[in-house]
Description:
By secondary structure, this protein is an all-alpha fold. It is 89% helix and 0% strand. The mean pLDDT is 87.
Amino acid sequence: MNVGSERAEQLEEIFRLCTDIEGAVRNADWDAAGTLLSRRHHLLELAFADTPTTADEVRQLHEVAEQVMTFDRQLMPVAEKARGEAAAELKNLRRGRAAADAYQQNSR
Length: 108
């Protein structure tokens, strides 16, 4: 396999991972999102590690960089909103737990 075709496969996988990351974030599956982000980061490092040898490779790398940055900018508000909702839910659960504990303490 030559560098060009290997890089092309890496770039395709990066795009697939972006879609998978979005799905994980929308489902608040933070473990999966973190794993997918790590995999994407690794592939980005590999894809950009070798100097492009053709103008087409330069164009492809530029497009990928732009698309990943755009994807991340668009997904960030979704992730922040989901994180805020999860934090609020956790706070409500803790409050409910404290109320239940207080009730139990006072009912003895």
